[in-house]
Amino acid sequence: MTRWMLGLALLLAACSRDTGDIPRRVDTAPDMPRQSSTIVVPVSAKLADLAAEINRATPQTLWAIDKREEACVPAQRITACAIKREDGSCRIGIKKLKVTPNLSCRIVGQAVRGPIALSGNGSVLTLTLPVRATVSAQDIGHLIKRETATGAANVRATVKLSLTRDWTPTATVRIAYDWTNPPGIDILGKRVVFVDKADAKLKGVIAGLERSLPAQLAKLHVRDKLAMAWRQGFTVLQLNREKPPVWMRTTPQALGFGGYRVRGGDLLLDVQAKTLTETFVGDRPNDPKPTALPPLASSLGQQGLAFNIPVLAQFDQLEPVVLRALEKRAAKGITLPKLGAVDAQFGKVTIYATEGGRLAVGIRVKATLHSGLIGETHGEVWLSGLPVNAPNSERIGIEDLKIATRTNSKAINLLIALFNDPVTLEAIRTALTEDFAKDYAKVLTAARTAIASRREGDILMSAAITKVTHGKITVTGQGLFLPVQAYGTASIAYRPGR
């Protein structure tokens, strides 16, 4: 009696062989937005090499003096009083009386420098120049044959570097110095110093350094190095080799000066290249056409590398994964509410994009109730739904699920019951999520390797990914697509002979 009533209930709940329409296939393309990046183009020089050039250009003898001084030792005077008051103050006849005349002399001397050194830290470049001066006063008042004085000074310069619009290095020099031992002598009890004479000459030396330093910086050949790096910046890099092939094309657009740094024994001029970064899926895109080195731009704005990495789970890769998940579900045994145990055999799985940004999954199925109330049901089940994910998550959910079937059953659509089962649906969703997470990790690893280091002649290009974010998953004609934004640092450096 119970068996008969269950069969009657099944018949009353029967539906037609076909339910709903099979989802229509569409072929939408992934949306790959362009990104703007700033890539550092360092031009480096050894401070020791630059200091050697400055030393070669600066004479050892900085200046020399040979001149007659009529008042080498000024006349000495005293104050005299004709009549004094009782308190000792002068009442009449205050006079200054010369007791010794001006003593003339001939001043002869020179200053020599020690080694010029360059050092610095961060954005401060420091130049130091030790100076030793020897000054003689000869034939002093026809009384003293010679008196000689020695002195020492330390010249210190802070140098601010920049580049003109035509890439010529410039230097603004602020120089200060002090005499650690001012040159001076004692003549007839009078101290005579020659700092003013030495200072006049030292100012000329300082002016010469301000003129010569940019000339030495020009020997860095900044423009030539930048022109080579600029040309190499027009390139195509392969981010992923297969499943699917992914390419990044870089097109430099502008160059700006980002300052300079002193690091260890190196002077680094940081030039920044504003670059358009485009990502392509499939065939290798055409190389960008190089342009001439542009004038220096005033500002390039945001710093750092930014580009898109498409994580694309292709449908032909997802189909066997979903089939394996369903086969595992069947092997564990399937029991449906009110219907009991079911034997299910899953066949070909077809996945594609359908209208409204939805995913269509078609599955061939054979199913039989253990109770034997109805015979074998076979046909196709078509699921369609909207894949969703939380920001920065690869976990896929399916919303607004719809089911359509093509079945031989006239009594009951057993396939609808089978695919309304939450456990069966979770097996499909888990299969999609796990495989997508594997693709995500694989693509990121390949991209990091591809951009880590690449040499083109004397140019070394390198980059590092420091941050990754991604948006919402979408369905495209090629597969499930997750737009991943990668951020980091990149450089194009002139490195000859390495």
Structure characterization notes:
This protein has 498 residues and is α+β, with helices and mostly antiparallel strands. 22% of the residues lie in helices and 51% in strands. The chain contains 7 helices and 28 strands. It has helices at 2-12, 47-57, 195-217, 222-232, 315-332, 414-420, 422-452, and strands at residues 18-19, 35-46, 61-73, 76-80, 83-84, 90-92, 95-100, 103-113, 117-121, 124-140, 144-163, 169-181, 184-187, 190-193, 235-240, 246-263, 266-281, 296-297, 305-314, 334-336, 340-354, 358-369, 377-388, 397-407, 454-456, 459-470, 474-476, 479-494. A 6-stranded antiparallel sheet has the order 1-24-23-22-21-20. Strands 3, 8, 9, 10, 11 and 12 form a 6-stranded antiparallel sheet that branches. Strands 2, 15, 16, 17 and 18 form a 5-stranded mixed sheet that branches. The longest helix is centred in the last third of the chain and has 31 residues, at 422-452. It is rod-shaped and about 150 Å long.
